Amino acid sequence: DVELREIPMRPGQLFMDPKRMIEACDENTIGVVPTFGVTYTGNYEFPQPLHDALDKFQADTGIDIDMHIDAASGGFLAPFVAPDIVWDFRLPRVKSISASGHKFGLAPLGCGWVIWRDEEALPQELVFNVDYLGGQIGTFAINFSRPAGQVIAQYYEFLRLGREGYTKVQNASYQVAAYLADEIAKLGPYEFICTGRPDEGIPAVCF
């Protein structure tokens, strides 16, 4: 069994901060998972400060901890509208990234992606060897038949839109979010948690 240690939100700190993260780590910790696009707030949990804290933790204790980035929302946003945010494999501790193609990847529902830094980063314990049409196939997906239409649709969007097209689409979403934030601010004395800025989170408004 794997013990899940969550870093709860608290007033004024609606994200996983390095200090509390390190306090939850020990010699049995197998990974740290920031959410790059928090569902409740819309903001990013920036991996860079957590990564730096883990570097210091290793220097102090000798304990080496990897990271997985839950980029279900931000994975199809930041590369196109905020490329200077260092959140991905540019950070050496990041061994895997997951992203939802059916969110901001513009694919149909049910399309999700997970990528590893390299083959060595994928634990063999996660790979199942199955017999298929007389041969052995290694898979880490959920078994049973499932449609491939979502994957084909995602591939089509990659080819049709490319980097330039995705950049235009995502920028348009952020423009709408900025407009909504400005207009909502005129309605009353609201405290904004997320204003839809591309350097802070997803194109959403939370107040």
What are the key terms here?
Aspartate Aminotransferase, domain 2; EC 4.1.1.15; alpha+beta; globular; 3-stranded mixed sheet; 5 strands; Glutamate_decarboxylase; 30% helix; two-stranded antiparallel sheet; 207 residues; lyase; 13% strand
Description:
Belongs to the group II decarboxylase family. One of its GO terms (cellular component) is cytosol. With 207 residues, the protein is an alpha+beta fold. It has one domain (18-119, 129-185): Aspartate Aminotransferase, domain 2, CATH 3.40.640. 30% of the residues lie in helices and 13% in strands. It has 4 helices and 5 strands, in the order ααβαββββα. It has helices spanning 18-23, 47-61, 78-81, 149-185; strands at 67-70, 94-100, 112-116, 128-132, 135-139. Strands 1-2-3 form a 3-stranded mixed β-sheet, with no helix packed on it. The longest helix is centred in the C-terminal third of the chain and has 37 residues, at 149-185. The radius of gyration is 19 Å and the shape is globular. It starts with 17 loop residues before the first helix and ends in a 22-residue tail after the last helix.
